[in-house]
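Entries read sequence, tokenised fold; example below:

***
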Amino acid sequence: MQIDVIETTGLGDRSYLVSADGVGVVVDPQRDIDRVLTLTEKRGVRIALVLETHLHNDYVTGGLELARTVGADYVVPAGDTVAYDRVPAADGDVLEAGPMRLRVLHTPGHTHHHVSYALADADGTVQAVFTGGSMLYGATGRTDLVGPEHTDELTHAQYHSVRRLVEELPAGTPVFPSHGFGSFCAATPTSGDSSTVGEQAQVNPALTQDEQTFVDQLIAGLTAIPAWYTHMGPVNAAGPAPVDLSMPRLVDPAELADRLSAGEWVIDLRSRTAFAAGHLPGALNFEFAVANFVTYVGWLVPWGAPLTLIGETEQQVADARRELVRIGIDRLAGAAIGSPEQLAAGQDTASYPVSDFAGLATAMAADPQLVVVDARRADERAGGGVRGSRHIPIHEMADRIDEVPDGDVWVYCGSGYRASIAASLLARNGRRPVLVDGGYGDADAGAAAVGLHDDDAR
């Protein structure tokens, strides 16, 4: 048997193709199924089964379309109510595909009806387990995505589900989770790129802690839920429409100017430093060359709002569109290709300064009343922040702009990425931002020496 990993780094997820004797099984496929079809052609296999470990909360599945396209059985947990025909996966069921046998294990926690699939060969020897959002590498899937009223119950269930996997599977069984590679579906940060059931027994909190400690610590560590998550479960239950990866309609500079003046979401995909050096007034900077792109577009742009992309090339726009359809942003208002100067139609472009933490320290020393905004999440802020800074997480920035005084404002985050989004939002709303390009944890000793850090910042 061969197990191919299909990475979706922008969402921190993995899908899998299992191949044996010309037959394939796909686990938790993403929306853009062309990647799976290309791989199956390369492997020379026919897909017999498409498996879902759960109804996903962080992306739109490609499972239904893939199964229909190739004529495979589509397997979804039996407890989930869906609006399409599927093979229900119930605890103890054994699914067959060529020489492969997949035993269904009900592993609730990430969702109520979550299942894992233990893969065995025709002789019954276990070869792997696909754990979805149950057992991750050094962590587990978060338990608060189906409603706060279920979190405590599901956290207890998650504890027992992970322990069940260890009790019922050989220690040497390789573990293949769908989440945990930067995904917000992980309850806590994961570690490592591969693991086995036996290794997890030594390091996974569900296996090294008593039940109540595990429950208390997992719930205490849960962070903000990305805004688009609320739409994914219903879309996946209803049955997603076929994916559309076609190029958005191109808009000319005049139409682009109209969209900007109307206050629509116009996203410039260039690097944060290129954007700061020159951009169309009113445009927002979501740098595409960073894995966090789709996370923060999905989190900040109101669901269904008109969205226009500005790209340096058509390929860049096409790549961004691929990322966006994975979370159900299917209808783009349009796209524009070119530099700000080419798209400005004779109007002036805008810019703002870029500095670093050493520059921030110098500016703070010269002006103790300097306005500084921290765009990190609350869990990051809890570990300290810049002395005197105002904490406005990036996902709250659009709604809390009025808390930022008029005039100059320095903005930072954990890497510079979210700060660049924040700076563009501030600029669109009449402030004069200075982008701190770098991570809070990277602030150098010279900056610390002048009192940049405050471990008690709130």
In short: The first helix runs from residue 34 to 43. The two ends are 52 Å apart (CA to CA). The domain at 2-238 is CATH 3.60.15.10 (Metallo-beta-lactamase; Chain A). The mean pLDDT is 95.
